[in-house]
Design a protein that fits this description.
3-stranded parallel beta sheet, 2 domains, Rossmann fold, alpha/beta, about 15% strand, about 300 residues
């Protein structure tokens, strides 16, 4: 169970990681082309991550022809008529992607490396992306807008409206995203950087650990007790993590628990950016949590 849970978390975090690296198609003999030619304008895009699909759809929905099977997109009727090239956490279907005749395929670094390499070898341009903080979200938006010749400024402006100072940002805060192992985000993760955008006092922002998930620190129950945060945020990935944390021996000894300052956030938005709506929801919840003064 321990290994399966860790593998699931790692898989989800990789999907959520959406800096962008463009790969130009290789020549027919498998070697890079010697003469660099400006690529033709992009008119057909397959997005293998929900966040990239959402950004492209908001920039110019006519350019998006294929998407992943993310539950975030499945719930949105605006994506109902688009071809799904994957289901859930399964790898994308190469044949479905090629059949869509895309000018560009956008995937996530560390999760879609193999299929992007295959597509690149077939002469299809690819973009490997990774969102680990607010600036990389903005950079990805600009990159995708340039590819499809759209104006990113309205969307970038909307991002800024999500952020606002909070009234109680100095309260010591700990975010827990899993139970076995107990993982918490430092400042190099999307979650940690989002807390930093609100100037929230993340107790482990500057800590480094041996976690297989970059940007996350593994904590022992003793370290959680030693941190004893004033505010505790639990992330619900839908696998019973919240209930398991609440049944841990250290739970009732925490200051945040005794003061009823425990809040549950959805996995999408806080840990995996997922979509623009998910990010906005997480930001709104952070505003509400930290605008409420402890009793």
């Amino acid at each position: 169970m321990h290994t399966r849970t860790t593998a699931l978390i790692l898989s989800l975090l990789l999907v959520g990681c959406n800096t962008a690296t463009m790969q130009q198609p290789s020549a027919s003999n498998g070697s890079p082309t010697e003469t660099q030619v400006a690529p033709a304008p992009v008119s057909r895009v397959v997005a293998l991550t929900s966040l990239s699909a959402d950004i492209i759809h908001r920039l110019d929905q006519s350019k998006l022809v294929g998407i992943s099977g993310s539950r975030l997109l499945a719930k949105n009727p605006e994506f109902a008529k688009l071809t799904r090239v994957s289901e859930g956490q399964t790898p994308p279907n190469l044949e479905k992607i090629v059949a869509l005749k895309p000018d560009l395929v956008v995937g996530a670094t560390g999760f879609h490396d193999q299929i992007l390499e295959k597509l690149n070898g077939m002469g299809i341009r690819t973009l490997a992306t990774q969102v680990t903080g607010w600036r990389s979200l903005e950079d990805l938006t600009r990159t995708l807008a340039a590819e499809i010749q759209a104006d990113p400024e309205p969307l970038l402006k909307s991002y800024q409206s999500f952020l606002a100072p909070t009234a109680n940002q100095n309260a010591s805060t700990l975010v827990l995203v899993s139970h076995q192992p107990i993982l918490a985000p430092n400042k190099t993760s999307w979650a940690g950087d989002l807390l930093a955008q609100f100037q929230i006092n993340n107790l482990i922002a500057d800590l480094q650990g041996q976690s297989p998930m970059r940007g996350y620190v593994t904590l022992s129950p003793e370290k959680v007790l030693a941190a004893d945060p004033e505010i505790l945020i639990l992330v619900d990935p839908g696998d019973g993590t919240v209930e398991k944390l609440k049944s841990a021996p250290f739970w009732n000894k925490l200051k945040a628990v005794s003061r009823d300052r425990v809040y549950v956030f959805d996995y999408y938005g806080l840990v995996n950016p997922g979509s623009i709506d998910a990010i906005e929801k997480a930001c709104q919840q952070l505003k509400q949590v930290f605008a409420t003064q402890p009793s």
